[in-house]
Design brief:
- The chain is mainly α.
- Helices cover 52% and strands 5% of the residues.
- The protein is built from 9 helices and 4 strands.
- The protein has a two-stranded antiparallel ribbon with strand order 1-2. Strands 3-4 form a two-stranded antiparallel ribbon.
- Helix 2 (17-47) runs antiparallel to helix 3.
- The longest helix has 31 residues, at 17-47.
- It starts with a helix and ends in a 10-residue tail after the last helix.
C-alpha cells in the first residue's frame, strides 16, 4: 500500500503545482466532456420512465452534470507537488514523458490515439490494477518476455523450440555467448504426455 499511501515531494524537479494542473486539466476536461455526454443520454432516457426511482436517479444525474466543472476545479486545487502519492507522481511523470515523446516525434493526433489505445484516457491517478499496454504492433517490439530472452514471436510460439536464452548478471556479455546460456522449458505436449515431442517437430 506504500504505492498509494506514501507521498513524495517532487518540487526539487522544478515542477510546480501549475505544471501538474496543466497536465491534469487536459485529461479532466476530456473526461468531463465524455461524462457530460453520458449523463445527458441517461437523463433523456430516464425522462421516458415515470416512477419515483427513475426520477430520483435522473435528478442525481442532473446534479452531477451541473457540478462537473466545479468538481474538476476542486480536484485541480488539491494538487500539491510537495505531497503527491507515489502512484500519482509516477502517473504524472509517465504522462509528461509520453507527451514530450509525441511532440519530439511529431506524431499526428491519429497516431497518438493508436499508440494510446484508441480512446483510452490516461489520467493522473492510482489504479489498483495492472494497466496493460496496447497490443497493436506487438510483433515489432522484440525481444520478448520480462528479461528480453526470446528474440522473435516465432521463437516464443513455435512448439519446435525447447529452450530460451535466460541471460545472466554480466551486462557486457556478447549476444553469441548469451545465446549459449539456455534453460530448457517443457512444451505443452511434454507436460501433458510426460514425454518429449517427436524429433521431426524440432527440425
Amino acid at each position: 500500500m506504500n504505492f498509494v499511501n506514501a507521498t513524495v515531494d517532487i518540487r526539487s524537479t522544478g515542477l510546480t503545482a501549475v505544471d501538474l494542473r496543466t497536465v491534469a486539466r487536459r485529461a479532466l476536461e476530456t473526461w468531463n466532456q465524455r461524462q457530460a455526454t453520458y449523463l445527458k443520454g441517461e437523463i433523456d432516457r430516464l425522462r421516458l420512465t415515470v416512477d419515483a426511482q427513475a426520477t430520483a436517479q435522473r435528478e442525481a444525474y442532473e446534479r452531477e452534470l451541473a457540478g462537473l466543472a466545479d468538481s474538476m476545479e476542486d480536484t485541480l486545487s488539491q494538487i500539491d507537488p510537495g505531497a503527491l502519492p507515489v502512484g500519482v507522481a509516477l502517473s504524472y511523470l509517465g504522462t509528461m514523458i509520453r507527451e514530450q515523446a509525441y511532440k519530439d516525434g511529431r506524431y499526428t493526433a491519429a497516431e497518438q490515439e493508436a499508440l494510446d489505445g484508441f480512446g483510452i484516457l490516461d489520467m493522473p491517478q492510482i489504479l489498483y490494477a495492472y494497466k496493460p499496454r496496447p497490443l497493436a504492433g506487438l510483433w515489432a517490439t522484440a525481444p520478448f518476455l520480462h528479461n528480453g530472452s526470446v528474440p522473435t514471436i516465432f521463437d516464443l510460439l513455435s512448439p519446435r523450440y525447447r529452450s530460451f536464452c535466460t541471460g545472466d548478471d554480466r551486462p557486457d556479455r556478447g549476444e553469441r555467448e548469451a545465446r549459449q546460456h539456455q534453460r530448457r522449458i517443457p512444451r505443452v505436449a511434454e507436460r501433458e504426455e510426460g514425454q518429449p515431442e517427436d524429433d521431426q517437430h524440432r527440425q
